[in-house]
Amino acid sequence: TQPIFLKDYQEPHHWVRDVHLTFLLAPTATRVRSRITFVPNPQNPGDLELNGEDLRLLSVAVNGNDVPYEVTDTGLTIPAHALGEGDITFEAEVEIAPQENTALEGLYMSNGMYCTQCEAEGFRKITYYPDRPDVMGVFTVRIESDLPVLLSNGNPTQKGAGWAEWHDPWPKPAYLFALVAGDLVNHADTFTTKSGKAVDLNIWVRPGDEDKCAFGMEALKKSMTWDEDVYGREYDLDIFNIVAVDDFNMGAMENKGLNIFNSSCVLASPETSTDANFERIEGIIAHEYFHNWTGNRITCRDWFQLCLKEGLTVYRDQMFSGDMRSHPVKRIEEVLALRARQFREDNGPLAHPVRPESFVEINNFYTATVYEKGAEVIGMLRRVVGDEAYYKALDLYFDRHDGEAATIEDWLKVFEDTTGRDLAQFKQWYSQSGTPRLSVEETWDDGALTLFFSQETPATPSQTEKKPQVIPITVGLIGPNGDEVVPTTVLEMTEAEQSFTFENLGARPVASILRDFSAPVILNRHIDAPTRAFLLAHDTDPFQKWEMGRMLARDTLVAMIVDGTPPAATYLDAIRDVVVDDDLDPAFRALVLGLPSEDDIAQKLVDEGHTPDPQAIHDNRNELRRIRTDHLADILPALFDSMKTGAFVPDAEGSGKRSLRLAVLSMLTLIDGGAAARAAFAAADNMTEQAGSLRSLLLADMGQDALVAFEKQWKHDRLVMDKWFGMQVAYASPEKTAQIAQTLTQHPDFTMKNPNRFRAVFGALAGNHAGFHHESGAGYALLAKHLIELDKLNPQTAARMASAFETWRRYDPTRQDKMRAELARIGATKGLSRDMTEMVTRMLG
Ligand code: HT7
Ligand code: ZN
């Protein structure tokens, strides 16, 4: 398996005009007949090259005739000389076995339902086709099956007993193809677009799940309205279908007119879903819907351009969620996720640019860097050009590239043409991996405050030389009395070292730097704890206000771990001031109460030249939780009661109150022997309170009875049971974590074939820092053993989860040896997938 390189891109020898597919569905012998019109590409003449994998070829014809062809494990080639002149009508019939498809790529079955997943390269497991995103065709699909609901892309055209036909008028790449057939029921609605076109909306689910669709439907309608209002983009078919499926490798998929969702990302009810679930569902529905323009109408020329659609669509869904909920709270959550996943990735052996330059298996590049850093890059671009130019450039992008397969060069060019700016240096954000370290020093001289910035990006795999990036740094100044004296200003840094001066200031202000987290960098700034506490109290920028609390907590923890320094009153009092401040949004107060994760602390210790000891991190973090609880003990019971909400409404206000209430509950549990948590668990009428109180009990190792009750109540509900499986591993004490995970694999409801269930147990194991890194090595061994097994069934999910090992170089030699040995054991497995081989090779490299 050789890597492929961005620099080697070539246009195909043939374009596609139209595609006619007929599916005769059967679990182990589905027939797929195709009739495809190919148009020779005069720019690059050659053989007709089609991808195809795991297909049983039954017949091939060109223009109605037999032709010579060559079939390999990966495709079918018809030599140029056998193609004749002009357009080509290619016909083939293949047989596939959806029932045996456990990889969940191509056409597969889930609970008796047929379903497809074609991104990135799944279509080649359905039939022979040029399975590359720059080849776009108009699809007509006929499905034959006794199942009652038969769906594909585009608009329905005709149907009869046992068959249905669909036609999608919009040319699309094969990765956006979809087919669903099953015994499904729909939650239906309609939407009228701003130009007055009526669109039928459906969410299709298994019978019994109908009552969990209303929230998703509202989210869809809000998304449609928002994209019209904010980006001027209207929906373009008569119908928009969403289908929920239980077995799915990721969250959801934006197939044209037929989005397919992991059921966990669309089904919701107050009794079974937490506030976090509701928020995620709203965001994912929006994300997939927004792809209709950013991804489908304008797609990617090749998979190296993945961030073109994913970074932009994440950026758009983040804007949407901020508008629907609270911008400050969403921004803090985004930064938490970025640091937890993307900074971690950028700091280790899997670091890669937002636009990678090579890959072996594209499935391994659906990463936090492509998605989340890709979105941050767009946010920076917008800050650099300004809001007005941003929307103008987007209009130009849609006008210029609608119906095309585009590149990052095309994307940046619309900004250059709109603004007249040269974005050559900015473009490095797409090619340079690693997280820049931005350092700042300041001087005060006769009414002038000068900020001296320097930037440096550490070397990353295969990129040792780094150049200075364009960094938009947002700064505001707060006067000594707490008033803002200079509002937010964007400083544009382009050099390795650069200074900026604010003049005519009365008294020396305190600078608030990197407001709203204006660039994905690590800011090194030495300010003392009282100054941080001052900003926590007075900064007008909610992100920086929160950030100061977080820095205080992080520094407190590092000092506790490194030299046993107890927490200072500055920190404890500052937190108390925020928690009791009823003028602040409860969601924000809950976020300020959150402590840095154990993984974050481990990375911070590494950055400061220490070797992290996971057990010590765990113990000190718990100790700080206890000390903070003592410091706040007198206010906790009343605060807990005051945050009680009435009837459950999954909006920002209700969810904010519940998050503060549950953060308080986990502290109360440390001092009341679990009484409040047990009572909350027993009284809970919504999953947020039920799961939140169970979490408090589990963290205090008092959750056994509640776990039994929870299982009894919910054993019929697969999505709730995923929580049950996950929570007991996620919140287990370090010495018990691996054992609990191991025991759960013996539970009758555990299955390796359902990615949600596998992730519930093993994602939780990898996410329990002290448990996974327990000195016994049991966590490493257990995960490796199950990844080897899963790789045989589902390489994509197995390879993604292998990134649990990406931080192995952080730890002491004993742990390093154990992790490296497990990686080597995985790597040495016979028949290992290309996905997993690439991941292991990169991690060990
Ligand atoms: N564009 C999709 C990415 C994707 C995917 C989704 C489901 C299963 C397998 C997949 N491979 C790639 C989802 C998105 O970003 O919207
Ligand atoms: Zn996406």
From TrEMBL:
Residues 532-844 form the Peptidase M1 alanyl aminopeptidase C-terminal domain. It is an enzyme of class 3 (hydrolase). One of its GO terms (molecular function) is aminopeptidase activity. It catalyses: Release of an N-terminal amino acid, Xaa-|-Yaa- from a peptide, amide or arylamide. Xaa is preferably Ala, but may be most amino acids including Pro (slow action). When a terminal hydrophobic residue is followed by a prolyl residue, the two may be released as an intact Xaa-Pro dipeptide. It comes from the Bacteria. Keywords: Aminopeptidase, Hydrolase, Metal-binding, Metalloprotease, Protease, Zinc. Its cofactor is Zn(2+). Gene3D superfamilies: 2.60.40.1840, 3.30.2010.30, Neutral Protease Domain 2, Peptidase M1, alanyl aminopeptidase, C-terminal domain, tricorn interacting facor f3 domain. NCBIfam families: pepN_proteo. This is Aminopeptidase N. It comes from Celeribacter arenosi. The lineage of its organism: Bacteria, Pseudomonadati, Pseudomonadota, Alphaproteobacteria, Rhodobacterales.
